[in-house]
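Q: Predict the bound structure with uracil.
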Amino acid sequence: MPDDPRDERSVLIREVRQRLESLRRAGIDWFPTPLAAAPVSRRTAQHVVVAAAEPETPAAVAATPAPTITTAPSPPPASKQAPASSLFDAADFDTPLVPPDERLAQLAALAQEVAACERCPILASTRTQTVFGSGPPTARLMFVGEAPGADEDRLGLPFVGRAGMLLTDMITKGMGLRRDEVYIANVLKSRPPENRTPEASEVAHCLPFLERQIAIIRPQFLCLLGRVAATALLDTMLPLGRLRGRWHRYRGIPTIVTYHPSYLLRSPEEKKKAWEDLQLLMQAMGLKPPPRKKS
Ligand code: URA
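A: Predicted complex:
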């Protein structure tokens, strides 16, 4: 780094511009400002537009102010803040970014591999079908649950039973998103008999499929529902109570952990904490809760 702070600034500006340009080439033309906490309308979330790069001369670089990242007048306590540098941290994937128009085909090919998998003989012989996931391949937000239950096994779709109804409410009534705007998947793609907790070997067999699924979709945010998803993707043994309420990263993706909707159905008193977790996510995504309907 140069000694002169003005040189340091122009190097920084150049690096920011290069990073924005490479994101623009990758098809990303905007991103949320994670520190923004001021009220904003849902669709006009504070963001920086990644403008096409102008010809770069040293003078132009030095004269160009860095993109404005709006900070809130009174940000939440540090531990609650979204990772401030999400744009500038290189995503930590072994595979290149998949162009948006190739993602559906890649996901379909992966889903076929999943459907043919028999690495867990018990699951393969008891399932009706595999449950791969649902949602747009360019979703900004991806939820990851544990494993399909009876309804999911029957219909071939994730979170369509009672827990799914609660998850849908969290997404729509809580976050103001449509369910079909987010991607939903599970760690296990097959139902464990009697909905038992997945065995460690089953998680180990199925996790590479989920990791490839995430690598194709490359969501901007992840929300891990429950202990199985959190321990599988964050490689931690900490209890859920210690993981929720703060930010993590999975391969560079800002990640929130919260209670599984099935647990919330059994322990409704914990819904308040799950709501706090969703609010962290919404703040970072620039979302406002939808107006409450008068009953
Ligand atoms: N529980 C999960 O973890 N996933 C589902 O798809 C349904 C219930």
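A: The longest strand covers residues 253-258.
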